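Issue: copy button drops trailing tokens. Both records pasted manually instead:
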Amino acid sequence: GVDLASFGGNSDFWFDRYYNSNDSSKVMNLIIEDNDKGVYKKLVFTPSGNKLLGGILIGDIGDYAKLLAISKKSDLGGLTPQQLLSGDIPVDDGGDGTKLAEDDLVCNCHCVPK
């Protein structure tokens, strides 16, 4: 099988089809594709690049929880879109190794924080 994850910070990402838009007045897309490793990562930002709207991860979903948490916030928290795409996402997880901050959600359906 193939690991697959998708996320959107709000319903606009899905209902307004931002995940499928190439309109630079609405979104900025950053994509990494490595066919040899079977990895595809597409992150969708506001045109200014200061907010993550959502994304699609195939093959390597290790950053899913952190990217989802960032997409729920009003900005990138001082990070750049390129850092998010490359997986360079520093986080203070309190030393527990989860790579999740205290206010990050571990269950989206029931809004359960770490």
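Record 2 (pasted manually too):
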Amino acid sequence: NTLTELAHANLRYYFPGLQRRLCTVPRCFEVELSHLLAGSFALAVVVSWLVLRNDPSGWFFQDIIGAAFLCFIQRTLRLPSIKLAAGLLVLMFFFDIFWVFLSP
């Protein structure tokens, strides 16, 4: 979802011609060409990770998905102070170190 939203926003900004409406989903939203392209990109990243997750090059797609997840968390949570946000980032840093170096 986050990969789709990030790609969709960038496509709409840099390529205004992609804002053309293709169809309307009743009671939900209008589907634009940029939605389809962004969804295709996100699906390609996820499928690539599924296929290559045990390959030495699979880390690249896992990092893209992880960065998108962190963007989603940052967008969803409304943190009351920068001190709390910095603390959460430090915790995520040590969490990542644990999984990279200390996990079996």
